[in-house]
UniProtKB/TrEMBL annotation:
Region Disordered: start-end pairs: 1-20
Stretches assigned to the Tc1-like transposase DDE domain: 103-243
Superkingdom per UniProt: Eukaryota
Gene Ontology BP annotations: DNA integration; DNA transposition
Residue intervals of the Transposase Tc1-like domain: 23-93
A GO term, aspect molecular function: DNA binding
Record protein name field: Transposable element Tcb1 transposase
Organism classification: Eukaryota, Metazoa, Ecdysozoa, Arthropoda, Chelicerata
Species whose genome carries this gene: Trichonephila clavipes (Golden silk orbweaver)
Length: 280
């Protein structure tokens, strides 16, 4: 009787349907166009190689390279000069700690009845949310909704101010600065007022108002709204509005929801989010 040996047979796997060259091409297309779909890549591969490839295979190859589909960060398109001024502004205030408690952040925002559905995704690695190729740039535009002005500081915040119609510099003074901002600023020991560089904020009569009442202004670079505490608050509100069912159907209903959805302790929440970006 003969004695033999046995060995465990290796598991058989189906052969890989893509070559290493095709895998590199898939990743290259994904990195070149972060929002490209797996269907578009599959169609391109089929056109070049003359053999079909499933969308599932495309997604598997992309995920194997370390990329995953995530929502893009929305931002404004910036020139090199914009980037230089933003970096200079951050460097000058890199060591600020207690000084931020004196800043009063303000902004007016238009909240629309219809919000971005957020279905667009970009392919990126973990921790690469701020990569420029993963940012979806968008410009502001008018849509059906309401306009509100808000102000937050370290001690407290002012209730939302409903802006009806178009806000100009004269209305900005008579409806916002004189009845709302001035009493709030005068009630603080020290305050630095922040506003963006919107045209109505930079007119002569508005600047004269701050000079006459000896209100210190925080310099603000162009296209810097994405790092404002107020902008973080509006983003939180917009995100919460998308989860409201049924959504607001009229501007009046939307205005009522704003008061309920606006975050409490908004200054501390936003400051913690922005400080890490300012100190980069």
């Amino acid at each position: 009787m003969q004695q033999g040996t046995t060995d465990r047979r290796g598991r058989s796997h189906p052969p890989q349907c893509t070559t290493s060259r095709e895998d590199r091409q898939i990743v290259r297309m994904t990195v070149t166009d972060r929002s490209v779909t797996s269907r578009t890549i599959a169609q391109h591969i089929e056109f070049v190689t003359l053999h079909s490839m499933s969308e599932r295979t495309i997604r598997r190859r992309i995920q194997q390279s370390g990329l995953s589909a995530r929502r893009p960060l929305l931002g404004l398109p910036l020139t090199q000069n914009h980037r230089r001024l933003r970096r200079q502004w951050c460097d000058e205030r890199r060591m600020w700690v207690a000084e931020w408690n004196e800043v009063v952040f303000t902004d007016e925002s238009r909240i629309c009845l219809q919000h971005h559905h957020g279905r667009i995704r970009v392919w990126r690695h973990r921790g690469k949310r701020m990569l420029n190729s993963c940012v979806m740039h968008h410009h502001t535009g008018l849509a059906r909704g309401i306009m509100a002005w808000d102000c937050i500081g370290y001690p407290s915040r002012i209730p939302l101010v409903h802006i009806a119609g178009t806000l100009n510099s004269q209305r900005y003074i008579s409806e916002v600065l004189e009845p709302v901002v001035l009493p709030y600023i005068q009630g603080l020991a020290t305050a630095i007022f922040q506003q963006d560089n919107a045209r109505l904020h930079m007119t002569r009569i508005v600047r004269r108002f701050f000079v006459n009442h000896q209100i210190e202004l925080l310099p603000w670079p162009a296209r810097y709204s994405d790092l404002s505490l107020i902008e973080n608050m509006w983003s939180m509100v917009a995100q919460r509005l998308t989860h409201i069912t049924p959504p607001a159907a009229t501007p009046d209903q939307l205005w009522q929801l704003l008061g309920l959805l606006y975050p409490k302790n908004s200054f501390k929440v936003s400051l913690n989010q922005c400080r890490g970006v300012w100190q980069r």
